[in-house]
Design a protein that fits this description.
Length: 132
């Protein structure tokens, strides 16, 4: 029990009739005692050796990773990159996240010099164009 919520975890290797390799399936059922309600989460993985705890952790981080990647793509005009190969996708993801980290560092430096300034990525890009 976690307060009024009783979680129940179940994991199995299952096959679908149209999917050849087995999948690691984790079912999380949460039952709220007061008022009575029930919620289900189903997680799938192709890694059969992965325990349920890391799979749940990875799923929790997925939204944050996707939001960071989307923000980095939009901020640095990388949405025009059409990647269809695993190598191209890896390079685009690393580039966008690296540029996001660089931007955070530059914004921190700008706030150290001018504490009242709240520079956005667009401000950083304008400064770089001005220096160029």
């Amino acid at each position: 029990m976690e307060g009024p919520i009783a979680p129940h975890l179940s994991q199995r290797q299952l096959r679908h009739k149209e999917c050849t390799p087995p999948l690691h399936v984790v079912l999380i059922a949460k039952t709220n005692v007061r008022p009575p309600a029930r919620a289900h989460v189903v997680l799938f993985s192709s890694d059969l050796a992965l325990a349920y705890a890391p799979l749940v952790t990875y799923d929790r981080l997925r939204c944050q990773i996707e939001c960071n990647f989307r923000d980095a793509q939009q901020s640095w005009s990388l949405e025009d990159f059409m990647n269809v190969t695993p190598t191209g996708l890896t390079h685009a993801a690393n580039l966008s996240l690296c540029l996001g980290t660089v931007a955070d560092g530059l914004r921190a430096d700008g706030q150290a010099r001018e504490p009242d300034a709240d520079d956005s990525v667009l401000d950083l890009k304008a400064d770089c164009r001005g220096y160029k």
